[in-house]
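Continuing the series of single-chain predictions for the mutant panel. This is the parent chain; the variants come on the following pages.
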Amino acid sequence: MIQKINELYNEYSNDLYKYAFFMINEHEQAKDIVQETFIRAYIKLDSFQGEYVKSWLFRIARNVTIDLIRKNKPIAYFLDLTTPIKSNDKTPEQVLLMNETEQQLYFAMNKLKRSYRDVIILRKIKEFSISETSHILGWSENKVKVTLFRGMQALKKELEKEGVLRETNWGDESIR
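Parent structure:
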């Protein structure tokens, strides 16, 4: 069983780290989330009987992330459910190393509701299928599609507000 967890760690830890970092924007906490994800996966490995190991691990990582946010920042988590919180947790050096488009996208994404960020990260950045995203988030496939569409529209508005995009049909094909 330890060998199986090691194999999963070698294959997915980098992707899980990037996902966790994108969700919370803190290097050390993202590493902690990956570690906790594999601890929980190890505990539940015997009972796992699915064929989507990657989406199972991402679902665990998402739950660990939510648990961490609730534990460490209960007021911020509550506010995040109602309004986006501006976050500049990247160091100035990290932001400078990003190209201008990446910086604008990063800041625009941080202004979105958590549900929009979740689904955009999973579908557009991590390139999970609608079915896999549905499994990770614990949502119906229809909710994934609707939330992705709305999230892409909100992201488009943010990017237009910041002058990155002109009005286009950009969001119309974005959920496919």
